[in-house]
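Technical annex, item 7. During the second reporting period the consortium partners agreed on a shared format for inverse folding records so that results from different sites could be compared directly. Each record opens with the tokenized structure and is followed by the designed sequence. A conforming record, contributed by the partner at site C, is shown below for reference.
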């Protein structure tokens, strides 16, 4: 090896001390390429590749269809939570599968008997108007008109029915039209909105001039063989999960995550075997696990990938209340080291608070990083913003469902997580590119161009690490400043 400074991962992490991401640093390599030359493509599972190693967690304050669409467009994948009915979860999956870039497949719709004041509420909440009007105020109903700003801007009586002010028989395009064709119609007509209808005149989607101006092709998009966006969904090990699986399979889900705080159980083994037997087209991510023995059990059962982490999440209290778990950096290295010998990728789940932690997880052998709090404050996360002490926040709570953290049938419930709030991070269309570019710069500093080489250097010992003292950790962050402005993203 050219550079013998530092220590190999084996020398660093095969000790009797458990380490977290902040406990170590990666030593730099040689740079002979630009950040944009870095390729972040990775295996989510043994069968599914994604262009960006980013996964959004199956929490009800993190991932529904809007987040999953955004994750897939930027090369990652979203895992839809299961704190809902099987039908609702399957519908969220269907929304992702139906999505076409540039087409709004779930537009807000009103009926002729709504009032102008209803549009005022929508405009105040979402900052747009231009609302399609259907017979019953629902999607997939006959389109009867559209209401735009020019129809209502100078109308003093805001209690008027929309049927009295709407533009009837608006310009439409038929379902199946291409993005470029629809774009041409919008340009030539000088309209702001273009409803897309089926042969019976029922509204199926909408195009917006503003969205077209914002939308670009997404070359990193995670897509299946049918060119549909990839999406995952979480399930439990309970009997009701089998009903969910049937609905999720019908909706076209690509991968399921078996959501368990401690995945090394007979219940999870049985569920993995059930899925692989009855739904072989669906990949299975097992977990959560933190030891090599746990990995062996779930891989033997048929898992296509493993989710690593027990208690490191920002809102998780498992290690405190249960006294069971493992320091996350050590957990990722040990499980990835074993799972690689079986050809199974691992996903680092929890403990990631900044872009550097994502890099560190990948350097320890993870193929992707799953994040909750990092994405919870974005526009695309479920929930409404609120203000506390003048700060714009969104709610963020422990897990997707009590089905994971609580033993539902127990007489005494022991919490293993808390609820809280996270800062507004804006749109994923700004945040995801930032994360991706940060990872590319990190790889450049290490002198590594792709994930394959990163893991090759990890295993050969060419990737070098050092443990950091508490003062070294302090030195590595902002210090000795009277005041400073915290960057929007870290």
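Designed sequence (site C submission):
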């Amino acid at each position: 090896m050219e550079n013998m400074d530092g220590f190999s991962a084996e020398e660093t992490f095969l000790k009797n001390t458990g380490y977290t991401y902040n406990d170590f640093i990666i030593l730099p390599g040689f740079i002979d390429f630009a950040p944009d030359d870095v390729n972040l493509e990775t295996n989510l599972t043994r069968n599914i590749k994604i262009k960006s190693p980013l996964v959004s967690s199956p929490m009800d304050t993190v991932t529904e269809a809007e987040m999953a669409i955004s994750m897939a467009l930027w090369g990652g994948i979203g895992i839809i939570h299961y704190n809902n009915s099987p039908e609702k979860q399957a519908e969220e999956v269907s929304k992702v599968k139906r999505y076409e870039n540039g087409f709004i497949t779930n537009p807000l719709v009103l009926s002729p008997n709504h009032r102008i004041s209803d549009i005022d509420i929508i405009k105040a909440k979402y900052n747009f108007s231009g609302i399609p009007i259907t017979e019953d105020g629902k999607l997939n109903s006959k389109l009867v008109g559209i209401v735009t700003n020019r129809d209502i801007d100078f109308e003093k009586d805001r209690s008027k029915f929309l049927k009295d002010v709407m533009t009837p028989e608006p310009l439409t395009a038929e379902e199946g039209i291409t993005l470029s064709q629809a774009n041409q119609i919008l340009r030539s007509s000088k309209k702001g909105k273009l409803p897309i209808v089926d042969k019976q005149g029922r509204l199926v989607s909408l195009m917006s001039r503003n969205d077209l101006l914002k939308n670009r092709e997404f070359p990193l998009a995670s897509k299946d063989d049918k060119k549909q966006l990839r999406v995952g969904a979480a399930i439990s090990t309970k009997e009701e999960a089998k009903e969910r699986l049937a609905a999720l399979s019908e909706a076209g889900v690509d991968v399921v995550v078996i959501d368990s705080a401690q995945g090394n159980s007979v219940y999870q083994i049985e569920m993995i075997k059930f899925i692989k037997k009855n739904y072989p087209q669906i990949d299975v991510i097992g977990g959560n696990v933190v030891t090599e023995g746990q990995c062996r059990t779930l891989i033997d059962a048929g898992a296509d990938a493993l989710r690593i982490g027990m208690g490191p999440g920002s809102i998780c209290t498992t290690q405190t209340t249960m006294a069971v778990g493992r320091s996350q950096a050590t957990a990722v290295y040990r499980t990835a080291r074993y799972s690689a010998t079986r050809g199974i990728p691992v996903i680092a789940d929890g403990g990631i608070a900044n872009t550097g932690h994502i890099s560190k997880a990948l350097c320890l052998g993870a193929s992707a990083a799953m994040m909750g709090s990092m994405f919870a404050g974005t526009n695309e996360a479920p929930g409404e913003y609120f203000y506390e002490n003048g700060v714009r926040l969104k709610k963020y709570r422990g897990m997707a469902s009590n089905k994971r953290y609580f033993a539902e049938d127990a007489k005494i419930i022991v919490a293993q997580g808390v609820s809280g709030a996270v800062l507004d991070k804006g749109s994923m269309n700004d945040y995801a590119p930032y994360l991706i570019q940060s990872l590319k710069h990190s790889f450049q500093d290490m002198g590594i161009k792709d994930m394959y080489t990163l893991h090759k250097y990890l295993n050969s010992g060419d990737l070098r690490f050092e443990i950091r003292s508490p003062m070294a950790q302090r030195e590595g962050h902002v210090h000795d400043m009277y005041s400073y402005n915290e960057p929007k993203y870290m």
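The chain has two domains: 33-100+219-443, 116-214. Residues 54 and 356 are 13 Å apart (CA to CA). All partners now use this format for quarterly exchanges.
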